[in-house]
Each structure stands twice: as structure tokens, then as C-alpha cells.
Task: structure prediction
Amino acid sequence: MLFNANYSNVNDSYLFSTIAKKVAAYRAAAPDAKVLRLGIGDVTLPLAPAVVDAIRAAAGEMAEKATFRGYGPEQGYDFLREAVRGYYSERGVSVSADEIFISDGAKSDLGNILDLFSQNNTVLVPDPVYPVYVDTNVMAGRRIIYADANEGNGFLPMPDYSVDADIIYICSPNNPTGAAYTVAQLQEWVDYADKKGAVILYDAAYECFIRDEKFARSIYLAKGAENCAIEFCSFSKMAGFTGTRCGWTVVPRAIERGGLSANKMWLRRQTTKFNGVPYIVQRAAAAVFTPEGRAQTEANLAYYRENAKLIAGTLEKLGIWFTGGGHSPYIWFKCPFGMGSWEFFDHLLGNAQVVGTPGAGFGANGEGFFRLSAFGDREDTAEAMERIERLLAK
Amino acid sequence: MLFNANYSNVNDSYLFSTIAKKVAAYRAAAPDAKVLRLGIGDVTLPLAPAVVDAIRAAAGEMAEKATFRGYGPEQGYDFLREAVRGYYSERGVSVSADEIFISDGAKSDLGNILDLFSQNNTVLVPDPVYPVYVDTNVMAGRRIIYADANEGNGFLPMPDYSVDADIIYICSPNNPTGAAYTVAQLQEWVDYADKKGAVILYDAAYECFIRDEKFARSIYLAKGAENCAIEFCSFSKMAGFTGTRCGWTVVPRAIERGGLSANKMWLRRQTTKFNGVPYIVQRAAAAVFTPEGRAQTEANLAYYRENAKLIAGTLEKLGIWFTGGGHSPYIWFKCPFGMGSWEFFDHLLGNAQVVGTPGAGFGANGEGFFRLSAFGDREDTAEAMERIERLLAK
Result:
């Protein structure tokens, strides 16, 4: 038996383990210090009452023989696919229910979708980048090239027609930079993909943070995207499902090449290698789209948005260049005093007892930048901003 | 962009859709007939009360900020990994918690595990076979060879040293044949794998039906299996989780080749392409191992076993050759009168209004055989057996 030798080429990420070690060492040296964590990408508010009620009700159905649910459709129950279809329809995007596949989260599908593509494709990812896009392709042995995101383009790289790519990753609003593409900018990417015969894997996991229609909440707002783009979305950030696990993927029927259909291939992949999302979780997700669920999850998003506003306001006051915050839970800023990412991490931890995420952990272009997250407590976020202001206003 | 052309080689299965069409046609022609379904591989009894209570309690935790759970460890929470470790320990099998990976079901992991292996491996599967083993490898472009299971070997093929294989699938108790290997027989497969440097993918999804210690409830009861075997198991049949989705995979640390470790590769795969099983589902699964959960799920298994006994008893009385039933929810029998699988399907539906599964749907060696399932209602099963006895005793 031969192992997949590509695994030898996957780099181990020490980003979060290094952060944990540095924080532990600091705490050991200064046990009385109150360390504030603004580095996490996880939500902190509990599930909405409408969602919890739906879980309890579904548990009740599972307890009775007459209403018990066994194997469900691998692509998800109609009640949830229809609810997602309605969510798109509100924004003027027309997708049919059989183009929507319910999943256990965007991360799983972003990895598993690669099953559909030949190893002989060139993959274009932005730098800095969510590491999963890179690692999943290294595991499959694909060639990876990078699109430079930097201060010059506001961390929103645009297509370069001199570059040939087959599989293009776009995440907007972006993790880690918080930068969001406008519909007009995405149209340029769709036109480029169309010209190159490429497919776009569009990660919309943070779309719920967008409040200005100029920014794209779906790539299907760009003309022709249904011919080239697969969209991944999630209840994780929209409704606090990071530990409850539900998302969806839109695979348009129009994506066809050489007699093969992406939609049919994905259906075949999922029916063969997946057995659907738990019934109780699908009921929980459907509750997000009820009037009560919408109001309750919107209130949670408003809480995180207010945190983001606090962070962005502090950086503005300090005159520090940044992206994100307005339409994203992440704020990505240039380290002051020309510091490197890790140098600034140590500075912030040692002098303000605030933990963030060094941009260098997301790629070469992240060096000299730093990420803060709006998913923490309001009080902690406010206190962290006061400390940062005191530290950096000097 | 190039699609994965191997998808063109995946055969569509029309087994269950053909059955559905035939049943619908029969019902249209004979609307008053009471059709009894003994074809399904899904459970029908509801979740145990201890499991339902655990779901409700976990929902309560998710409703409060202090006890809310976001992202969990991709490989599963310690409380569940420890419970699974204890389950093995009861049978004298020693696996450590970091060799146990909690999954959303055996089907997902049986497909996804193939990420770890080179395309240049030869795969050995039994015929007849659970179609997922074949389809997942066709999708990856691997060479597949078959081990003949037939009446002569009791549908339990043994190793043939003249055959070279790299990846070996074993499912015991078997789907579709219900046949179960003894520990001594599995030892022969482990010795063969060791000699060939192969890996065994051991599907133990039906181990909970075994009541005689002569039969293997885990491949790790065979000496040296920890050097070559990965075991997949599931709460689906054990506790009715087909719609609740939880299972586990054991990847021993001892499986190493050329500097790569299967355990480390799988951890890397799962942390990159998976985000863990929902917290509420892991709590539900852990409840299966509590004293109440054990007693309640055992009562459900006893119900299915009694159905299996009814079916097996009827076939014995009729003098029909069969496998399974004693340590399996499936009974696999030789079609009477020398009939073909589909011929017998039509005969049984038309004359006894009983639906089963034609063996030919599981591979060439299934022709002339037929599968009945013990997962139905007691009353329906009993009535179906009376009808079959009347029909075939003529």
C-alpha cells in the first residue's frame, strides 16, 4: 500500500499553537494580568431561542416512532433547501432548490468539492489566505499560484489576464482581511473566469455582515456567475452554528464541461461519500429563517457589528490603516511603528495584555499586518480598545 | 478547468429506484393490496429516551452564554472518545483515545479515508458488496479487483495469496449478506494483509448484532491488526442514529509506511476538511454508553433480532439456504425454484405483496440471491413471513 505522498508537502501551521504558547508563558510570568482575547474566529453568543426551541421540538419527533426520521436525503431536506432558496430570492438571486446542497459546514464542502476536479488544474488563491484553500490543494498535488493582496489594492486583488488559472478562490467579506468586494469587482472576476474557462469557488461565509448593497452578498449578483461559480455559505457566523454544524453549497446546473455537469457530479459525490446533516440540525437551521429566528440572529449580528465599530473607531482615531470592520467581523490593520506581525503581537500582549492574530500566519503578504476579531465580549472589546489607545497614542 | 474524468466511469445504481418504480406500478394496479416492506436498510424504532434527554440538555447548554459551545475539536470531544475507548475495553480491545476519531458516520469516513492513499493502489472488494466501496474508488481512478463471495464459501471469502492487493475492504457482519467472520477467519485476513503490506478498511457498522464471542466485534481482536487495519463503526444501527449522524473511526498509530503515519495523516485530513460533529449529537452519542442508554438501545436491538429470528426461522422451515440473521439484521437467501433475483422480486411482490432487495443489485455474485431486512415492524415482519410461507410451501 502506498500513502498519498502529497501529504508530505503539507506544512503544519503553528499559528494558533504558537499564540497559545506565548499567552501561556505570559500568564505564567504575570499571573494577575487580565488578558483580553481578540484573536478568535469563533462566535461567543449562544444559539437564538427560536433555534433552541426547534432542536427541542425535533428531539421530540425523534422520540416517537410515528415522527422518527432515519436516513434523510443526502443533499438536505426540502424544507431547508426551500428556505435557503427564499433567502437568495430576497436579494434578487434566483437559484433552484436542486442547486442547493445542505452540508455540515463550508469548511467540509470547500475541501470535498475538490473531488470533482482533475489534479491537473492550476489553483489561484489570494495571499494572505484562509489556510484551508492551500492545504486541501497541496494534499491533492495541485499547482498553486497566488494573487497578491496588499495595501496597494486594499487587500482586494483584481484579475490579471496574463495569469492562467483553472480554480479560483474568492472569500468576501474576507478572512483574514475583512475586505469585501463590490458587485462590480466580482463581475470582473466572473468575466475573467469565463474567459479562462475557470471555476470560481466563492466562500460567502461572512456575507451576513454586509449591510451596504454595493457589496456582494452572493456571487450570483454578477452576470454569468451561474456558468462558472460555486458558492459556499454557512450558518456558523450568521446564527452561531460553529458548534452545531450546518451550511450549504450552491452548485449551478449550468456549470458543464466535456459532457460532465458539476451539479450531477456533486450530487453523486455527496450521495456516495456523505449521509446528510442531522435532522435536528436541519430543523435548527430552518428556524433561523423564521421571523423570530431572523430577529434573534440579527440581534446577535448587531452585537458583533458594534464590537467591530468600536475596533474600527479606535484605529481611525489612532490614524492606523486598516481594512474590514464595516461589513465584516474582522479588522485587519497595519502594525504601527513599522513592526512585524509577531513583534507587534508581543508588544500588544506584553504592554496591553491584548491577544490578536499576527497577519504573517496567513501568508507572506500578511507580514506587518494584524487581525482583530469582533466576536468577543462587548466589555472586553471596549476595554481592549482603551488599552490599545493608551498604548499606541503615546 | 478540467473535471475529474473518473466520474464518467461511475455507474449509476438503479437498484432502489427500480424497486420504487416496480412497487409504485404494483400499487397503481392493485390499490387495495397491503404491501409489506422488508427491503429497507434503515432503522424504524425511535431514539432511546436517554438519547433524547441528552439532546434536550445539550440544547439547553447551547442556549446560555456560559455553557455555549462553538468550534470543538475536529476529532471529537474527549468525553465521547473516552466513552468509545471504554466500549472497546469491555471486549478486551485496547485502543487509545487519540486513535479514535468521532465522525458523522461510517459512510463519510469510508469515503474520505481514501484521501490518504495513492491512486496507484489495487483495491480488493468482495462481490457482492456495499456499492460505496466500489464507487468511491472508481471516482479516484483506482484499480478494483473482486474476492468471490458465494454459496461455496458461505459468502465469506478468504485470502488468496496469489492475488496482490493494497487496500482490502471487509464488512462483518456483512451488508448485504449478513455473514459474519469469526476472529480466527479475520486473523487470516490480517496475516495476509501483513504479508502483502496492505491496509484493511474494516466496516464494523453491524457489530452490535453479534452475540457469540466466536464472531469478531472488532478486527483488533486479531493479532497484529493494529499494524494494518482501520476500523469504522457507527451509532446508526447500534442506537438508531441513521438520521442523527454519528460514528467513529479507529486509526492506529502503528500504521506507518515510508515515514508517513496514517493516524497523523487522518488527523491532518480531518482538521483541514472537517469541522467536527455537532456538540448536541456528540452528547446524544455519549448517552448511548450510559447504563440507561445501554439498556434502552439493547431493547431496540433485541426487537430487531427477534424480527431476524422470525425471518430465519421461516426460511429454515422452508428448507431455503441462507446466511445471516443470527448475528446480523440482514438475511440473504437463495431464490427458490432457481429464480433470478429480479424474477423472484416480481414473484414475491406480485403473489405475497412483500418487498425485498434483489441480490443482483450488489454485484454479479448476488444474482440468484435475495436480501430481507429485520429493521421493519414486528407485525409486518410476522405477516410477511406467513405470506412467504404460504407462497413458497406450495
Observations:
- The domain at 49-289 of chain A is CATH 3.40.640.10 (Aspartate Aminotransferase; domain 2).
- The CA atoms of residues 55 and 281 of chain A lie 7 Å apart.
